[in-house]
Design brief:
By secondary structure, this protein is α/β, with parallel strands linked by helices. Helices cover 58% and strands 14% of the residues. The chain contains 9 helices and 5 strands, in the order βαβαααβαβαααβα. A 5-stranded parallel sheet has the order 2-3-1-4-5, with helices on both faces. The longest helix has 15 residues. Bound molecules: adenosine monophosphate. Adenosine monophosphate (AMP) binds next to helix 2 and helix 3.
């Protein structure tokens, strides 16, 4: 049973690693960004409300994200464990998650912080070429990351569940580091 939070800047490789690890552990990879992009492409009420924020690289308002996470973590497949990718993005989302997990009588095992320099992140995102991967939006997302998301690292450090991995390495090397963290349980 693993319950993991993947923290780190956009472009750090959280999504790729969460997908691989989720498959190997047979637990859901829950990416708020993927859920939002899916909602946007389907034109659901959530998608319509979220689109301008996602396109501009701004954080979607907490109210929308917290409802989404509450609903997702209430689904039966999460009883086997989960990997959260892209959530929490600020300290208030982190404290909401604590309350939600208490209600669900679950504990997070580790928050894993992916460390990658900004210069590398920008190059990776430009190469990825998603709709929100243009230079202006990337700059804004990195700024928001440093202002609002980086404090979440300290939040989990204080809870003594923080682990860090050097994300500026080959995919397989990062994968091996994650496996070590899981095996240390
Ligand atoms: P990501 O795929 O995680 O890079 O997320 C893409 C975009 O979705 C972000 O730039 C935000 O606009 C939005 N988003 C994803 N997760 C969150 C979150 N936890 N809180 C607010 N906005 C989010």
């Amino acid at each position: 049973m693993s319950r993991l939070i993947f923290l780190g800047p956009p472009g750090a490789g959280k999504g790729t690693q969460a997908q691989i690890l989720g498959q190997s552990l047979k637990i859901p990879h829950i990416s708020t960004g993927d859920i939002l992009r899916d909602a946007i492409s389907k034109g659901t009420p959530l998608g319509i409300k979220a689109q301008s924020y996602v396109d501009g690289g701004e954080l979607v308002p907490d109210a929308l994200i917290l409802d989404l996470i509450r609903e997702r973590l209430s689904q039966a497949d999460t009883l086997k464990g989960w990997i959260l990718d892209g959530f929490p993005r600020n300290v208030s989302q982190a404290s909401f998650l604590d309350q939600l997990l208490e209600q669900l009588q679950q504990n997070c095992d580790y928050a894993v912080n992916f460390e990658v320099p900004d210069q590398v992140l920008t190059e990776r995102m430009l190469a990825r070429g998603r709709k929100d991967d243009n230079e202006d939006t990337i700059r804004r997302r990195l700024q928001i990351y440093h202002e609002q998301t980086a404090p979440v690292i300290d939040y989990y450090d204080n809870q003594q569940i923080l682990k860090s991995v050097d994300g500026n390495r080959l995919l397989e090397e990062v994968q091996a580091s994650l496996q070590e963290i899981i095996n240390s349980d």
